[in-house]
Structures are given as C-alpha cells and as structure tokens.
Amino acid sequence: MGQKGRRRQNLARNGVNRRKDSLYQQVGGGDSQNGETLTYSMPYLPEDIWHRIHSLMPMRDAARAACLSRAFLHSWRCHPNLTLDWQTLCSKSKGGGGNFSRKIDSIIRNHSGIGLKRLELDIFDDDRTLPYIDSWLQFAVTPGIEELTLGLYKSAFRPMAELGPLRSLTTLHLCSVRITGDEVGCFLSNSPALEQLKLYDCKEIIFLKIPCMLQRLRCLSVFSCWMLQLIECKAPNLSNIYASGENIKLSLSEALCMKDLCMCFPNVIGYALAELPSIMPTLETLEIGSEDEVVNTPMLPTKFIHLKHLNIQITESDDYFHLASFLDASPSLETLFLDGI
C-alpha cells in the first residue's frame, strides 16, 4: 500500500474514533490511584436525562454516584427523594445518635432544597437531636413537597400559618409527633391536594377536624392516638378509614363514597349496627374489633346493601348470637370472618 493509501486509512480510522468518542463523556470523581486520576466513560446524554436517571436511584446508590461523579454531584443536590432514618444512614455504623444527627444535618445542608418531592425524617428524641429539629423541618416543609413522613418520637411539630399553601402535598404521615388537633387542622387547611393522612401515636390530639376543602382525600388512618375523642370529617370523597383508640366517635357529614372501613374501640359493634348502614350506604368491606362490648342488638331500619366482606374480632366471652343482625342486614355478603381476641 502506498503512502497516500496509508494516510487515507489512518484518517478514516481516526474519524471513526472521533465519532465514537463523541458519543461518550469522560467523568472523573477525583479518585486517584498511583498518582493518576481515574476517569470513567459514560454515554453522552443531555443533563436533564442524567438528572432523571439519578432521581430514580435508591438514595444510597444516588449518594454513592454523587461521590463518584461531579455530574451526579450536581443532581444529588436536587435529588427529589430523601429517606433520613437510622436504617438507611447507620445500619453499618457503630456510631451513636450524635453521629446519626450529624449525618442528617450534613445531607440537609448539602441539599439545595430545589426539587425535593418526598422526605421521610425518622429521628430519635435526645439532647443531640433536638437542636437540629427546627432547621430540618424548615427545610422539609416547602411548597413543592409532595410526600412528608415525620417520625419525631415525642418531638414537637408546630406548623405555622405563615408556611403558606402546600399545594403539592398529597401524603402526610405523622408518627409519635407532639402536635395538637388545631395545629393539624391548620396544616390540612393549607394542603388542598392531600390524598392520604396517617396519624400514629400522636398523643396531644383530642379533636381532629378535617375540612371539606380536601376534595381529594381518599384514605384516613388513625392509630394509637389515645387522647383522641372525636374525628369530624367533611371531606366529600373519603373512601377508606382505619381507626383505633379508646373512645373515638366519628362525625361524617359526607360518607357516600365510603368503601372500606376498619375500626377498633369499645362498643364499636353496637355503633356499627346502629349508625353505619344509613351514613355509609356504599360500604363494601367492614372490619371491626372490640374488647369491651355491651351486647345490645338493635333492629336495623336499613341494610348494608353493598357489604361483601365482614371481619369481626371480639372477646371470646361475648355472645356471638347477637351478631346475627349483621347477616340479616347484609344480603350481598360474600365472606365472614369471626375471631375471638
């Protein structure tokens, strides 16, 4: 082959390599080995696509990728999902609560707050954590948040009116949080898109009022809120309620969409027989439990026309025969489960 032929071949080969390299980008995270910086070749994609890929990673993997790549470090500061709990941050660490608090504080300080959609904050209530809580909550409760889970273990969450509307919030879970019923009501009134509300072990709530403006609320769960006496709900499209406690009363101005109801508190069977057929005509699944039931079988003026699944748990000493009223009032019943506590 002549000199011109070899020159054409080299040019062609170099052209192919240049085209191939243009499809990749070199990514270096500052790691070095034997004095040389390590780089990695990644397919070239627009920045917004890499951000999207990064956002779909589990939080641990996303954090590791941010340590490896400067490109991912930028998107980490806008990562939409943060799970800040002991299992995620300290499962392999021998450090105590102080180390745990510093890890959370470092993550929050390095996050821009932009693009945050879901935050789960599950922390311990001790002297090392308390100084940080207010700043963490100010970071978390922003107008763009969609899912908020707070496990504060007796720490206070005092949402103020100046927070403004949280128009994107669809899910709120509060576990062992010191918050009053009025404060919950204030928070709900600023969350018109809320679809799911779950309260667990929130001992300062006595009266829970859910406003009619929550047109999208579908599911309400209230467990172990031992001071709670009354749930007043005016949300028109609520279809699922799960409630347990001591002496909870339900006041539902709108229950025409109710499909699934689970209740556990004293004398709930008599309440269900006397009240539910008329106020929840579309009920399909009913689960009730009582450890202290006064046997008083009322004559039902209306029936559970659509009830298909019935689960009743009562103490073994109770007389099961008084439950026959449920069978008479449930012409569409498909499954019946009776269990002695």
From TrEMBL:
Domain At1g61320/AtMIF1 LRR positions: 150-339
Q: Name one Pfam family in it.
A: LRR_At1g61320_AtMIF1
What segment(s) does the record annotate as region Disordered? 1-35
State the Gene3D superfamilies in the record.
Answer: Ribonuclease Inhibitor
Chain intervals with Basic residues compositional bias: 1-10
| Name the UniProt record assigns to this protein | At1g61320/AtMIF1 LRR domain-containing protein
| Species assigned in the record | Aegilops tauschii subsp. strangulata (Goatgrass)
